[in-house]
Amino acid sequence: MNIYDKLQPLDFIVVGLYLAIVIGIGAWVSFRNRTAVGENPFLAGNSLRWPGIGFTMWGTNVGPSMLIASASIGFTTGIVAGNFAWYAFIFIFLLAAVFAPRYLGAGTATLPGYMGNRFGDTTRNILAWYTLITILVSWLSLTLFAGGILIRQILGLPMWLSVMVLLAIAAFFTIAGGLKTIAYTNVFQMILLIIVSLALTLVGLDRAGGTAALATATPSGFWNLFLPADNPDYPWPAIILGYPVMGVWFWCTDQSMVQSVLGAKSLKQGQLGANFTGWLKILDVPLFILPGILCYVLFPDLDDPDKAYMTMVTELFPPGMQGLVMAVLIAALVSTVDSALNALSTVFTMDIYVKKYKPEAGSAEIRRTGHLVTLAGAAIAVCITLAIDSIKGLNLFDVFQSVLGFIAPPMTTVFLFGVLWKRTTTKAVNSILTFGTLLSMGTGICYLWIFPADTYDFWPHFLLLSFYLFLLLSVLMVLISLTDKSGSAEVSPEERKAAGMSGKVRWLWGALAVVMIVLYVLFNGR
């Protein structure tokens, strides 16, 4: 029986009521705040404190798409995917200790702007295009893909139609309440999502007979964070070597993740907020991966791991509650799609069209260009989403990580060397951003589509492939910089004076490191 067949009319009524209420709140807020149209909301006036920073970073990372994917990988491989949550604390620490002082010391508003100040307008322009690609692939297409899977499970529609339904809902949100709907309801949605996932975990544990019975019913190695080197799914060398490439890019150089730290009231608040994010990431395993493991025990005959989360919802929750879960997932997915389309439109219109091609453009032309870019971005994203849906041999979580793994190497290389190595030159940075992007994404296209890994066995694990690309680009960065006679970039005096960490911040990071070490000791060796 499909998930759709198990839903009751009450569930669809709850979905409709929830979406209507959210749209109504957004419309009311949008109407009440019409006078603030000219206000720049991107960095919140540099007023963010550590709780807001931590919740924002965590909420951006663990949205519904990753929730569905995490349950899927928990069903197939157990807790090993917890590395993507717990191992991340090292790179969040890198953001707090190394990158944040430099970003805030330079007074930057965007990361392309930061690198542009150091290496020139050409670097800023290349990074703007790279940001567009990142938004299209990682934030928009992957979200549409996960949302399409959710809609497909609920309504039984094909992927292309599921994606169109999701885009239609997103457009309806925008027309009724605009992006302010998202801003004023996102925290509520995340809290509700946490409560729902916690309830799902507790009910599932009770149905499975408790933690001892759950451990007994799962295969050997399901509770190990590090699997043998010959494991086909996630061998430990791939985790140790490959994830850092993705981790540095995602946590230290991606605008969507770093923006809340850039809006911190002070460096200390930014570092405390990053630390809070590290603590929140501990919750990913019990809230998002454990439901997938429970589904493996309770419903071992499930034909598609990507259905693990919704199967748990429909089997363990009563009618009405199932509808509430679907409504929260859909609304939060729509918020990500709306935000991604808005970011895509903003970056292209302001950083490329106006700055480079039409600086004299008036407000009407800018607005019209933004609308056209939004429509074009949506059309391109649908095509990319359908291409992602054609990937064979990978579940939803692996699709997410493999795609991100091929996006990450150029940005990780450029920021690590550009920020930490004084000899890095503009020519080297621009060369890696252009050639490295073509190489990395070209390799990803070959791995996922042209010579898919499930058919051709000569490929290494995608995380190791990401690591090899990073090594190659690093060697090229060094060689080009050393042979370039034009000289390296100059660091601003404000950035040179960037402060380190206070005693309280160091203590909290030390405590988090101890907890992580204990977790890795506990969840290995079974």
From TrEMBL:
Pfam families: SSF. Its main location: membrane. This is Solute:Na+ symporter, SSS family. The chain crosses the membrane at residues 12-31, 52-73, 85-105, 126-151, 157-179, 191-214, 234-252, 272-299, 319-348, 369-388, 400-421, 428-450, 462-484, 505-523. It is a multi-pass membrane protein. GO terms for molecular function: D-glucose:sodium symporter activity. GO terms for cellular component: plasma membrane. Belongs to the sodium:solute symporter (SSF) (TC 2.A.21) family. Keywords: Membrane, Transmembrane, Transmembrane helix. Gene3D superfamilies: Sodium/glucose cotransporter. It is found in: Membrane.
